[in-house]
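Hi team,

Filling in the usual template for the complex we talked about on Friday. All components are listed, including any nucleic acid strands or ligand strings, so the model treats them as one assembly.

SUBMITTER: L.P.
PURPOSE: interface mapping
COMPONENTS: two
RESIDUES: 978
SEQUENCES:
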Amino acid sequence: MTVDSVKLALETPDERQPFAELGMKDDEYQRVREILGRRPTSSELAIYSVMWSEHCSYKSSKVHLRQFGTKAPKSEALLVGMGENAGVVDIGDGWAATFKIESHNHPSYVEPHQGAATGVGGIVRDIMSMGARPIAVMDALRFGGATQPDTRRVLPGVVEGISHYGNCLGLPNIGGEVAFDPCYIGNPLVNALCVGLLRKDQIKLATAPGPGNKVVLFGARTGADGIGGASVLASATFEDESQAKRPAVQVGDPFMEKLLIECCLELYQADVVVGIQDLGAAGVSCATTELAAKGTGGMSVDLNLVPLRDPTLRPEEILMSESQERMMAVVTPGDIAAFMAICEKWDVPATVIGEVTDTGRLVMTWDGETIVDIPPGTAADDGPVYERPFHEPAGQAALNGDGPERLPRPSDLRETLLTLLGSPNLASKEWVTSQYDRYVRGNTVLAQPADAGMVRISEVMPGAEETTRGIALSTDGNGRYAKLDPYAGAQLALAEAYRNVAVTGATPLAVTNCLNFGSPEDPEVMWQFAEATRGLADACQILGVPVTGGNVSFYNQTGSDAIHPTPVVGVLGVIDDVAKRVRSGFTAPGLRVALLGETHEEFGGSEWAHVVHGHLGGLPPQADLIAERGLAAVLSAAAAEGLIEGSHDLSDGGLAIALAESCIAQGVGASVSLPTEDAFVGLFSESASRALVCVRPEAFDALAELCGRFDVPCYGLGTTGGTSLAVEDVFEIPVGDLRDVHTGALPAIFG
Amino acid sequence: MSAARVGVVTFPGTLDDQDAARAVRLAGAEAVPLWHAERDLKGVDAVFLPGGFSYGDYLRCGAISRFAPLMEELVPAARDGLPVLGTCNGFQILCEAHLLPGALTRNQGLHYVCRDQRVQVVNADTAWTAEYETGQEIVLPVKHGEGRYVADARTLEALESEGRVVFRYLGGNPNGSLNDIAGITSEAGNVVGLMPHPEHAVEELTGAPSVDGRGFFTSILKKLVNA
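RESULT (copied from the run log):
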């Protein structure tokens, strides 16, 4: 079989190349020819096509994402910002946390189990490549309508994939979200988040400095998984039968990943790694170009040395393969023996496939012939950048004009509460979360159904200093809000995640995001994206929490039907003394119940409008970030002073749902009266910047005083106790009934 | 007097070893790491086989671990009376190694289940349960996909009549185990295997909302100190 070498490329300049099939535009192909001064070899074409794909190059989003840098608030906590495998923040006592959320949407539609499983695997390797021990995961999931037939195919597969892979890895799953809307029926969203810990002076970066240093590929052997996955799967819409794309989904082996985690940790401890990069989308192409571009600038690789699971693979396929559980490290010649010994201890195959050079070129050979000879930065960093046109969608004004005011209000609020509590979006997600191990590693302080997950920082790595600190994490995002107003929708997503972290007593510190949208080639979708990024960047600035990294997922549409714009925002917070964490809901009888924050009449995009009327129109709740900041300040101060016995944020479904969930949490009832004249508004409005807390009676005045200091309204609603939720003059419902409705909904659908 | 030494075994794919070692230390014993590839029990007084997915659960849960070099030392030592506790994957390994009868198969509901489970202590006379009362009800987390205890009729009959069922599920059997069996013991009472996780129920702050798992570790400690 002939190999398309550089020599051959020079001899056959007019050879027709399949760049269009690889997802490259005509002008992009011409640029590659200009850069190289000749036609690319087929291997070079493979590299440029994946590296310049939307998935790897962020070519449509880059100009908007820049705002996360230019508008970034001053933060002393930020150690590594956007552009690396994951952001890193200083959490005190010499510790740093690294976290990131990433999408695996398209593969999860094609093959729900493997798509979701490898989504977890990929984000965990991102965290490992920063030098950290992964300590927890969570997942933000969106599916079509709960009773739509395809949801019954996709959801169980996705949950099982996450469950199988994450549980085998030994990482507690501490939270996340599940939401349903028919707009996701052909494009489910699987956004996986991982958080890791490391000593702040031991951060690893993806860089290959030092000519003569060895390039080691370690982990699983390379097979035909996901060939073309990055450019084909992530860039194309699903107009064809998904069958044709099935082979492009990668298959994961969590056992190998667990060995890789322990192996990497031991390699870091032994200090035998100069630079490291995980192999994700675009596999060897991405790892070699990015490592070389950020290091001394050159690298030579003998592709024949890549260990293969399928010996018939061609060099182009090896370059594009997305086989899972692989890493690439740069190691000094003197450390190679020690490096290999650790890999052998963990039964992790490791092979030297090349070395760092100072030539400024990435050179690869196959059977002795040069098949790649490129400046690595041109593939890794100099991809195309598009200023895609955008404009407000044609129907946007009409959508905003069709407000919820015209909807008939309910007369029986008891029935409304039970209907909402048992609706798929508000029902208990236990059917999902009971399939995840939330206890492994023994550090889980809070997990579902708490507002945020929290883990204690303990026994992360041998010999490291102990601390009383803990970290809290939450992800949130409401596609309906963002559809009505993407600017406000993105801000509300951030506000809710920020609030969820604050109600546990932690102080929000940093942000990651996963931006799920339709096709960027549609100017109306691009407007949603531009508005959402602008909203999020502005909100981060006001709340003082920087974006540390994230991921963009475009092309979540089938034909011309795009999903609701769905920015999912993750917030990480720190609590100085994890023993002072605040538990979820009403934790004991005899406590005073207080509502913090102001309630307005806000039903645009609400669960009530959605569930009861199938209506989406008007404007979402107002995102008052100053109020949000004040509320968070009250909550963390109150937790630190030990004033709060339990808490819960108010969000979808409003106060009614927060009260019901607070009662269900520990089986403790409550008797309350509403601070608003209109009971319906008081119970079901979805105004932001609100939280429910319970305090010992003698602590109430101190709480009220604290609220006064931060300008946060504080309403005493009543007391906890009894076996039912009683709202004065409105209804009284036994907690057992609330629980039955809440927990019974998803099992009734999914078995 | 030196502290009692409890070995905690790590196979490739073991996950709860850190938690197991912590529970041992919290009880006041020394946790000694034991590595699957070494034929060396390091002179420990008891052994804890923690949960996880050893060898990826490939072939069958515990089937490959059974052949690890360490097991060549552990199996005869257990037959000679060394106290051994296996939880979850550790229980599966003990069954595969024939230190305990029966087998753990796929949960009846086919899903992995993680929940806080009510469990009854049926036998408080083993090396690992002496600090409990017979009939005592405790809460321990379960988290497994293959925890359905099965055995042939004669074995079940023997386990029941000899009082070797140590734990039974209460308030709903999470996996379809025969006779609601959550854990069993060897004839001599030194080897105990169970699907629930006592090591995740030893601290107020973390893990399950109970500290009912502490009794396992105080039981073995008292036994070793008094030996």
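MY TAKE: Chain B has five helices and eleven strands. Chain B touches chain A through 30 residues (CB under 8 Å).

Thanks, L.
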